[in-house]
Amino acid sequence: MKSVPRLWKELSESSDFVFYEHQTNSEPFFIGYFKSLTEPTVLQQHILSCLSNDSDLSLDDLYHSIPVAEKEISSDGDLIQNKILRGNVAIQYGQQSHHCILVNAAASKGRNVTIPEIEFTVEGPKEAFVESLDINLNLIRKRIPSPELRIKELTAGSVSKSKVAICYIDRIANEQYVDTCIQRIEDVQFDQITNMTILQQMIEDNSNSIFPQTIGTERPDYVAWAVSSGQICVLMDGSPIAIFAPVNLGQFFISFEDYYLPWIIGSIVRLIRMFSVLFSVFATPLYVAVMTYHGQGISNVFLSTIVSSRINVPFPPVVEVLIMELVIELLREAGARLPTKIGQTIGIVGGIVLGTAAVEAALTSNFLLIIVALSALASFTTPIFRMSATIRLLRFPFIFAAQLWGLLGIFICTFAVVAHLLRLTSLGMPYLVPFYPYRSADLYDTVIRPPYSKFHHRFNFFRSPKPVRFDRKNANLKRDIDE
C-alpha cells in the first residue's frame, strides 16, 4: 500500500495536479487534486471556504464542516489515489498523519440526453443513453422506481479502471445469472477497457463466434423492459451503450418499437423482418447454385429473361455475385465513415451510377443486380447492428458452398450454422431456446408479438424466481365506472 507522502510525489509529476500547503495555527493541511477533473465551484465554495488561517480545526472537525454529501476519511493509499483520479479532492492534516479526507468534486462534463441515433422509433420515448454512468442510471431508475432494483458497481481495466454497473431486479432476475455476470467481469484481465463493446466481447460465452450473445442498446426503455423480464443489464461509465443478457436468437430480430404498435401490426412487421433476414442470407447463394448446377429448375417464364441478361456477361455466376456483393459492402462502408450528408449522397449516387455502369459494361446482369439490391435492403431490417453485421458476413460462406456443391452445399452450410447455434449459450442459457430445448409455453413472444393480456408469465428460460407478472384471469376484463 502506498504512503500518502509517496502518493503526493508521484501525482505531482503531472502538470495538471495541484498540491499546496494551507497553514493554520496548529498543523498545516495538505490539499491535492487534479484541476482537469474537479469542479472549480465545488472546490472554492464548499471545500476551501471551510479552511481559515487562524483556525484550530482537526481533521474530524473539517470533515463535518464540509457541506458535501459524498465524502469519507481513509488511510488506504490505493483508495486515495483512485478517488483523486476520479475527481476527488484529498485533504491531509499534518505531515505525520496518513489519513485523508476525500471529497467528491468531480466535474460533470459531457453531452446532455439526446434522441436515439441508432434505434430511432416513431412512437415511444425519445431519450438515449449518454457517456455519463450516473445519468444513465438515473434514466433507468426513473422507469423502474422500485426498491428491488439492485445496482452493483465494479471496476474493469487495470489502467482505465472504468466503472461498470450491473443492474437487475431482486427476486426477478435469477441469482445464478447475476453471479455469472459478476464473475466474468471480475475475471477480465485487460489494461484498457474504455467502451462497453470491448467488455461485451470479453464476457460472452464464446468470443470466437460471429453471433453476438448479448444485446446492446442505447434505449433506456428497452433496458427497463429487459430488466423487468428477468435479464441482467451492464453499463459502463464513458459508454452510451448498455448490454443485457441472457438472450436467445429470436430477440435479435425483435425491434422494441413492436411493443408500441398494436399487436397485429407489430406481429406482421416482425414476420416481414424475419423473412427479410432469410432472404438476405439465401438469395444470392441460391442464384449461384441455380445458375451453376440447377439450370433445369428455372421456369420457362423467367428463362428467356435470365438468359438475355447474362448473354454478354464474361464471368461465371459466383464471380458476378462476389463483385456485386463487394461493391455493396464498399458503398456501405463509405457511407458509414463519411459525414452524414456526404455519406447519404455517396450511398444513393454511387449505387445508381455503379449499378448502371456495371450492367452497361456487361459485368453483371440486370437480374442479379435486382437480387443483390433487395438482399442488401433486407439486411438493413435487422434491428440489432451486431446481428446485421453477422448476417452480412454469413452470406459469403453460403455463396462459396453454393459454387462448390450447389443446393447440397447450401444445405451443408445451413446444417453447420444450425449445429453451431445448438452449441451456443448466453450466460449459460441455450441460444436457440424456446425451439431447442423446446418450450411450448415460451413461444408467445417469438415469431409474433401477442397482446399484452398474454404476457402474464415471464419466460421460463430466464428461470425467474417470480415468473408470474399478473393474474391471467382478470387480464381481459374491462370494467366501466357504472358497473
Describe the structure.
This protein has three domains: 4-104, no CATH class; 133-247, no CATH class; 263-430, no CATH class. It is an alpha+beta fold. 29% of the residues are buried. The protein has helices at residues 4-11, 40-47, 59-65, 77-85, 133-143, 175-186, 196-203, 220-228, 263-292, 300-310, 317-337, 340-360, 366-379, 385-405, 407-423; strands at 17-22, 29-34, 71-74, 88-93, 100-104, 149-156, 162-169, 215-217, 232-236, 242-245, 425-426, 429-430. Helices cover 43% and strands 12% of the residues. The chain is elongated, with a radius of gyration of 29 Å.
Domain unit count: 3
C-alpha Rg (nearest Å): 29 Å
Distance between the ends = 72 Å
What string gives the helices and strands in order? HEEHHEHEEHEEHHEHEEHHHHHHHEE
How is the main sheet built? 5 strands, antiparallel
**Got a strand count?**
12
Q: Low-confidence segments, ≥5 residues, pLDDT <50? A: none
Helical proportion? 40-55%
Which structural class fits the helix and strand makeup? alpha+beta
Determine the number of helices (DSSP H or I, runs of at least 4 residues).
Answer: 15
Mean pLDDT, to the nearest integer, reads: 86
Q: Identify the quaternary structure here.
A: single chain
Lateral arrangement of strands in the main beta sheet? 1-2-4-5-3
The best one-word shape is: elongated
Q: How much strand?
A: 5-15%
Protein name: Spore germination protein
Transmembrane segments: 271-293, 343-361, 367-386, 398-422
InterPro entries: Spore_Ger (IPR004995), UPF0353/GerABKA_families (IPR050768)
Family: Belongs to the GerABKA family.
